[in-house]
Amino acid sequence: MPKPVIAIVGRPNVGKSTIFNRIVGERVSIVEDIPGITRDRIYSSAEWLDHDFNIIDTGGIEIGDEPFLEQIRQQAEVAIDEADVIIFMVNGREGITAADEEVAKMLYRSKKPVVLAVNKVDNPEQMVNIYDFYALGFGEPIGISGAHGLGLGDLLDEAAKHFPDEDEQEYDESTIKFSLIGRPNVGKSSLVNAILGRERVIVSDIAGTTRDAIDTPFTKDGQDYVIIDTAGIRKKGKVYESTEKYSVLRALRAIDRSDVVLVVIDGEEGIIEQDKKIAGYAHEAGRAVVIVVNKWDAVEKDEKTMREFEQKIRDHFLFLSYAPIVFVSAKTKQRLQKLFPVINTVAENHSMRIKTNILNEVIVDAVAMNPTPTDKGRRLKINYATQVAVKPPAIVLFVNDPELLHFSYRRFLENRIRETFGFLGTPVRIIARKKNE
Ligand SMILES: Nc1nc2c(ncn2[C@@H]2O[C@H](COP(=O)(O)OP(=O)(O)OP(=O)(O)O)[C@@H](O)[C@H]2O)c(=O)[nH]1
Ligand SMILES: Nc1nc2c(ncn2[C@@H]2O[C@H](COP(=O)(O)OP(=O)(O)OP(=O)(O)O)[C@@H](O)[C@H]2O)c(=O)[nH]1
User: Fold this and answer.
1) Any residues with Cβ below 6 Å from ligand 2, and which?
2) Any bridge partners for residue 288, and if so which?
3) pLDDT tens for each residue of 104-148
4) Which domains does the chain show, CATH number per domain?
5) Which residues are annotated as a binding site?
6) Exposed (0-12), middle (13-18) or buried (19+): which is 174, by Cβ within 10 Å?
7) Using one digit for the tens of pLDDT, what is the confidence trace for 363-421?
8) Residue of the nearest CA to atom 2 in ligand 1?
9) Is 59 in the pocket of ligand 1 (CB under 6 A)?
């Protein structure tokens, strides 16, 4: 079941990003920070009571040099296209403006559920102002204050009422969901077409397998797959589609629903900074990752070329050292058959479970080989290890003091675990907890 998506729309300065940040909250990331990813976020997962959802701040999508009103219209369109529920935000201190009315008209036509939020209602006296906004035609306005964090519970309660039916059918557990991400022009659409075209796959055309019509389910050699939200299949031509923030948003949404992410790189052009950023998203999200170097047909090669390119990738993507690399050509279909065995392997590793006793043997051996570090006279003591999650595998170490598990020792343990269990293609999370916690 894909997570429901809420999008916030409204003209500039009504407080969208303030509310977005409030709802998302401060998230403590257990993975290392990759520069440039978490800054000015417009898309994030969030929770409210027992609801898990994703939220988009459409205000963060800047659309070139379009005029003011057109920008707002485009942002509203993103909300309409991407969201299950729209939070339409207005400013309780300013009353209804022409821009508000413009957005209202679009939302009204869209037939998506809309919850009207009147922001900057910082104290109860200002509550009376919210009723003017009934005139926008979206039922009862909800007064909120981003500055003071008021009313957000009511707002999210109302939004959650419109979340799609949770028992709608998603894919079978055994289905491998994968997406192709990469900067424009690396050949994502060509690869999708090559995969679906030649690889003797059976594309199922069952309508309504999912509410996301951009998924393509197919079967190959008895294994079910779904390609999630790839550039080639979706409709093109909208103005905002060419903006960078929007393509990031699409990539994040696709990653979010995938088990395996194929990070596509242009073999002809080589690696650029943007590739790194995109690869970082997949890593941060904890997905299994395969690096696919496309357009290999167009590269002049000798016997060293592939190894050198591999080394370049390793140097640039230090955080993806676990990801296998596959060289292909969508154009000539060369080496394309190498892709599926790799996808299958990394998907399997991504959901691998290790028995606790075996895991602990490995940890004990590792500690015997390379004693735990000491800090200020205290030695790290690992009492017990257990795997607490899959997709990606997460291992909790119960220790005397989590602060003593330094980066280098953590990496040493991770490497030992990887060597033993072969977690090719998947991140492995190691979390230190204080014993008895
Ligand atoms: N008094 C008051 N001010 C608020 C509240 N929420 C946000 N603001 C202020 O309103 C201004 C705009 O807030 P933002 O969150 O940047 O607004 P936005 O809608 O994301 O704006 P754009 O990014 O331009 O689309 C900031 O100065 C906020 O501090 C609120 O509840 N009460
Ligand atoms: N030589 C060569 N060219 C390729 C290959 N794959 C794609 N191309 C070319 O690269 C260009 C971009 O391909 P697309 O498949 O549209 O790339 P994309 O990543 O989907 O692009 P966006 O939709 O803009 O994100 C096209 O001109 C393709 O013909 C390949 O394997 N070899």
Assistant:
1) 182, 184-190, 231-232, 294-295, 297-298, 329-331
2) 260
3) 999 999 989 999 999 999 988 888 889 999 999 999 999 999 999
4) 5-160 (3.40.50.300), 176-350 (3.40.50.300), 356-434 (3.30.300.20)
5) 10-17, 57-61, 119-122, 182-189, 229-233, 294-297
6) exposed
7) 999 999 999 999 889 999 999 999 999 999 999 999 999 999 999 999 999 999 999 99
8) 120
9) yes
